[in-house]
Amino acid sequence: MATQRVTTSDVKNNSHVIRRPMSGHDTQRRQPAGGLQSSRRLTSLATSNDSDTLFRIRMAPQFHRVVCRTRRDESEVSPCIKYLMFSFNILFWVLGFLIAAIGIYAWIEKDTFDNFGRLTMGGTLFFDPALLFVLVGIFMFFIGFAGCVGSLRENTCLLLFFNFALVIIFLAQLVFGTLVFIYREKVKNEGEKQLMVMIQSYRDDPDLQNMIDWIQRYWLHCCGVNSFRNWESNTYFNCSSKLVGSIEACGVPASCCRAEYFHNNKQCGYGTLEASAGTHMIYTDGCLLKASQWFEQHIIPVVIIIAILAVLQILSICFAQNLRNDILAQKAKWAWQTHPMVHYYRN
After folding, report:
1. Can you list the positions of beta strands (E) in the chain?
2. How many angstroms separate the CA atoms of 124 and 301, rounded?
3. pLDDT by residue (tens digit) across 171-192?
4. Beta-carbon-side half-sphere exposure of residue 171 (alpha carbons within 13 Å)
5. In this structure, what is the dihedral angle of CA atoms 164, 165, 167, 169, given to the nearest 10 degrees?
6. Is 259 exposed, middle or buried (0-12, 13-18, 19+ CB in 10 A)?
7. Residue/partner pairs of 152-159 with CB below 8 Å, 24 or more apart
8. For residue 256, which of 275, 240, 245, 272 has the smallest C-alpha distance?
């Protein structure tokens, strides 16, 4: 397009000005006026002391990209570890509840107040199977509850309690095993004394009686602690009980009878403590010796079971700590996203 020359009089400079229509090129050249103004604004801010405003203007696009990328980030908490711990601990929780319920029911059936009164009877209550069920079940219940709810609800306090309890249990087992190995002779003597207390309380506690019968008849095939004559320390089986008409005097429990004789005669243990009585129908070896022999014969399975339990405990400790660290990392991310500066640039 031809240019049109128009002569005008400039009041200030008395110069001639040529006016022509704007082309597309001229339009593109005039577009960056906003950018020029922004540049002038940054220059003026740089020459001034308003560094905070200058930082916001320059870093706003970068913060916007970071916030957008953060919104698309996945959670720090691993769902695999979370639900694996939940599944394992809910079984542990239910199992602990059932064990505690069985122990409480058995203890109530044996008269609760009498069992409390036995606390001063030479420590025999420690070997009460019902009480052991109660204590172990309650302990398992609380640990399972902390692990189950802590992993499901992502509660760091419950996970810390769960982790701390497992560490204490693992260290206690390690210390106990070390002390048993170092002081094995002393432990053996103390165990022998406590087993004699159990024999003396054989008829006083039905649960203890059933446990001793199971050990002698089905597991170790033994009788007494060191020999079958240890049953003389029991009031009911002592030969002096003949004076009061006890039919079990100078005898041993029926669980001491050998299997081939027990089925035909459940009174095969009567009178076996007398000097002239035969002992071919009962087990004569003590349970302490038989337990030592059984352990030597099954040393490899016992070690494998102990190793598996130790590995499970260590893995549980590691998973609980890992899950707790992930939860803390996720909370730190939330705290950063809700920071006033991030909220300012997000808007």
Report:
1. none
2. 31
3. 999 999 899 889 988 988 888 9
4. 7
5. 160
6. exposed
7. 152/82, 152/86, 154/77, 154/82, 154/323, 154/327, 156/324, 156/327, 156/328, 159/320, 159/323, 159/324, 159/327
8. 272
Asked if 107 and 115 touch (Cβ cutoff 8 Å), the reply is yes
Q: 119 is written with which tokens?
A: 């606390």
* β-bridge mates for residue 306, sequence order: none
pLDDT at residue number 63: 46
The whole-angstrom separation of Cα 96 and Cα 137 is 4
Q: Give CA 196 to chain center in angstroms.
A: 36
**For the ranges 57-66, 132-141, 246-255, which has the lowest average pLDDT?**
57-66
Enter the tokens of residue 215: 């050990």
Q: pLDDT digit string (tens) for 261-309?
A: 776 667 788 888 888 777 888 999 999 999 999 999 999 999 999 999 9
DSSP 282: B
- 137 contacts: CB under 8 Å, gap ≥ 6: 96, 97, 98, 99, 100, 101, 102, 103
Q: Give the residue from 219, 286, 220 showing the smallest Cα distance to 252.
A: 286
At residue 45, what is the residue type? Answer: L
C-alpha closest to that of 146 among 116, 174, 168: 168
Q: Which residues contact 62 (CB under 8 A, 6 or more apart)?
A: none
- In 3D space, the residue among 192, 197, 206, 194 whose CA is nearest the CA of residue 291 turns out to be 192
Express each pLDDT in 323-344 by its tens digit.
Answer: 999 898 888 887 665 555 555 5
Which tokens belong to 273?
A: 């403590």
Residue owning tokens 């005008």: 8
The sign of the torsion formed by the CA atoms of 4, 5, 11, 13 equals positive
Question: What's the whole-model pTM score?
Answer: 0.65
